[in-house]
Amino acid sequence: MLKEFKNFIARGNVMDMAVGIIMGAAFTAIVKSMVDDMIMPIIGVLTSGVDFADKFVALNGEAYDSLAAAQEAGAPLLTYGVFINAVINFLIVAFVVFFLVKAVNKIKEAAEKEEAEKPAEAPKTPEDIVLLREIRDALKK
Hints:
Blueprint: H1 2-10, H2 12-46, E1 57-58, H3 67-72, E2 77-78, H4 80-117, H5 127-140
Antiparallel strand pairs: 1-2
Helix pairs in contact: 2-4
């Protein structure tokens, strides 16, 4: 059983998946930082700090001063503002990921183009072939 487990772990798919998960987590941190630290402040300035998180409808028909007050009262709520924020956040993250992937693809294509433009080296002739040619040439003399 231990041997089977070692074979399972040593298989390429498991290691590839682990590397993918680790890289995905690192990429997530980059995207989150870009959105939170670079894009959201700009959007905050452009929208004068409008936040939809406090937008809600109390389903019991009563009026509340704030979302916190409605939640404290235990009112059934339709918090559409939180949903709007989630959609906006998703669109921003998707936009950032799109541009990051586009940049990575451009770099990858440039590297592939550079590799393709390199002159192909002639394959090295194996030593036994070289030796046989020398013997052949010696016999011809």
